[in-house]
Amino acid sequence: MINVIGQGYIGLPTALMFAQSGQEVVGTDLDKKKIEKLQGGHTTFSEKGMDDLFDEAVQKGIRFSTDYQEADCYIISVPTPYDEKNKRVDPTYVIEATKACLDICKKGAIIIIESTVSPGTLHKYIRPIFEEKGFQLGQDVHLVHAPERILPGNMIHELRHNSRTIGAESPEIGDQVKKLYQSFCQGEIVVTDIKTAEMSKVVENTFRDINIAFANELAKICREDGMDVYEIIRIANMHPRVNILQPGPGVGGHCISVDPWFLVGDYPDLTQLVGTARQVNDSMPIYVLHRIHEIMAENGLDDLSQVGIYGLSYKENVDDTRNSPTLQLLNYLVGARVYDPYIEKDLVANQDHSFEAFLDKVKLVVVMLSHDHLKERMEDLEGKLILDTKNIFPQGEGIYKL
After folding, report:
1. Is the pLDDT of residue 152 over 90?
2. pLDDT in tens, 253-311
3. Domains of the chain
């Protein structure tokens, strides 16, 4: 049996995929309300294909519980935030989950940690737990790192088709875990050592963060000297070996905006580029704030209630608000209206749940996300001032860019 610990954005779809493939699965989470909702036959967040996958997994016998189970295999998928002061990974949730697994696991069980961690975390924080509890690692129980590699909004497809990395202390256990994931994963699965697996996941997200930061810094440079950053990027990308990304209002989520800090925290003297990229991307909500005030002054607007922020989630077409740039921006925009078609519950003050009501109340719309909903209703913004941080509106009167 597989006991998947943590039924959040990664743990739940992972548990469902294993169950759909015919594995006996129990999904465990300490959040009683979440488990009750799952037991009642309802998913806990919106995701393309999730409801169908959930129904299939239920038919195959998946169960949900607040209790850890006696199992052959544990998959730990719990949050790994970073310490705000020293920027290092906070492994508290992984440590507690590992201890709970060891309190109940069978002899020979495999504990797979999917949570993203900095290189050396399992050696420094997790291995000692096995020794403290009297387990001989590699014989009584086995430790593996198998970091996830999926994108909210396309999770189900990416779980099936993306390649994966398995970090294990022995090739035999690595191959055993590889076969387990092959029950649903059609992508290439690479077996390596644990520290390499830890580092590879952090490096992937750091690479993306640095490239986003270049585009964002380029936008600031072009704004300073009256150049069109989008035209410059378009022309530069005609070069066969250049692929500059598009600038945006900031980086959110629980991967790109977090994982690079792990390297900065552990290697502060060696991560000048990484640290600077993080600072550039973290500065973008404030940059958007300055643009809002410039546009308001230019058009005689003096009341923030005339400003509407479109988009609360951290990326397009999902309801995930973790580290959302909009939430950061709203700390400085008290009184502004807010709307997001994917966010049904009240998250912030002055949040509208009707697009029409939202537009009726504002004169300046700040586009923080290019949801499909907005792309289909762009004409509804006719006559509004628009700060288009996603470059989806054509240049024209009343249209402002980053």
Report:
1. no
2. 989 999 999 999 999 999 999 999 999 999 999 999 999 999 999 999 999 999 999 99
3. 2-201 (3.40.50.720), 212-401 (3.40.50.720)
Strands (E), 270-380: 307-310, 337-339, 351-352, 364-367
Please name every residue paired with 64 in a beta bridge, in sequence order, or none if there are none: 27
- Provide the percentage of residues in the chain whose pLDDT is more than 90: 95
Distance CA 355, CA 86 (A): 42
Q: What are the two backbone dihedrals, phi and then psi, of residue 107, each rounded to the nearest 5 degrees? A: -65, 135
- Distance (Å) of CA 286 to CA 45, 267, 385: 29, 27, 20
Cα end-to-end distance, the chain, whole Å: 51
Q: 288, 299, 292: which is closest to 251 by C-alpha?
A: 288
Q: Give catalytic residues, as residue numbers.
A: 201, 255
Kindly write down the DSSP assignment for every residue of 202-227, as one continuous string: HHHHHHHHHHHHHHHHHHHHHHHTT-
Contact 19, 26 (CB under 8 A): no
Beta bridge partners of residue 118, listed in sequence order: none
CA-CA distance, 179 to 185, in Å (whole number)? 9
d(CA 2, CA 68): 11
CA gap 299, 276 in Å, rounded: 34
Strand residues in 140-213 grouped as ranges (E):
141-145, 164-168, 189-192
Instruction: Please report the pLDDT score of residue 46 as a whole number.
Output: 87
Whether residue 330 contacts residue 351, with contact meaning beta carbons closer than 8 Å, is answered with no
The number of helices, as runs of H, and strands, as runs of E, in the chain is 16, 14
* Nearest alpha carbon to residue 196 among 259, 117, 257, 301: 117
Distance CA(142)–CA(21), nearest Å, equals 23
Single-letter amino acid code for the residue at 324: S
3-state helix, strand, coil in the chain (%, to 5): 40, 15, 45
